[in-house]
Amino acid sequence: MAKSSLTIIIVSYNTKDLLEKCLTSIIKAKITYPYEIIVSDNGSKDGSRELVKAQFKEVRLLVSSQNLGFAGGNNRAKNYVNSTYVLFLNSDTLVNADSVNKSVGYLDKHPKVGLVSCKTLLPDGSLDKDCRRSFPTPWAAFSHLVIPLDRLFPNSKIFSRYWYGYINPDLEHEIDVAQGAFMLTRKVVLDKMGWFDEDYFMDGEDVDLCWRIKNDGWKIVYYPKIFIVHYKKASKKSKILSRKDRLRSRMASVNSMETFYKKHLWQKYNILVNSVVSLGIYLIKLQRLLSVLIVK
């Protein structure tokens, strides 16, 4: 039996310094499986492409003249992938020596698992809670986004479903959604799912893909025996972003929430619930629009 192979896909957008650290961490990890790294650059203007060409000649670089978003950036790489597994990795992450090897080994040993993620730590060592999420059903979203009951009752199974606050983050368990910062899946699964849905520009693509994977009968697992470090939302914080780009970034998650709800949940709820959800989304959009417009 041939040894499992791996393609690591990194979407890059104006995160040059972090991209360099990310690529260096991968190379230092001494991955024991045959692997290739693909950097899909979304029109960076900070020298990211030049960095890859000059310092990481073993990396395949795909260049776009415009920002295709997370989904489009990753999907550009699919015609170049012939490996057993595909790891989607953010450019603002650092992997350690075991992150990749152990996650690939996990999928090798668990044929019913379609996607595996890991514990994700922020630079200060705290847990990035977005690394394990439930689907944003009306109640999960309400208790997280509208009235933050999950902050008030962080260990409650009723109020803290969104971030699985009632499950110890050191325990392996099944989840609904893995964060796009580190998602290892099977190429056969991706091909069947059609990769990422490009109706999402930024945020929500990972939720949508996980929804389709789970609905196809695969398990999604949070595997905390391995970890990465995540310098979160680096591309959104870039100092060279215009106000238009900042507005697009601020609105991305709520637009994605609306897209996901209408695609996958609208038909599951009655008109009253759908009306309340629509009103909530509208109010969040308004708040975010104003937050960008009033900042010089």
UniProtKB/TrEMBL annotation:
* Domain (Glycosyltransferase 2-like) ranges: 7-117
Q: Entry's CDD domains? A: GT_2_like_c
Q: Give a Pfam family name.
A: Glycos_transf_2
Q: Which residues form a coiled coil?
A: none
Superkingdom of origin = Bacteria
Question: Which organism does this sequence originate in?
Answer: Candidatus Woesebacteria bacterium RIFCSPHIGHO2_12_FULL_41_24
Bilayer-spanning residue ranges: none
Report the leader peptide range: none
The name on file for this protein is Glycosyltransferase 2-like domain-containing protein
Question: Could you tell me which Gene3D superfamilies the record lists for this protein?
Answer: Spore Coat Polysaccharide Biosynthesis Protein SpsA, Chain A
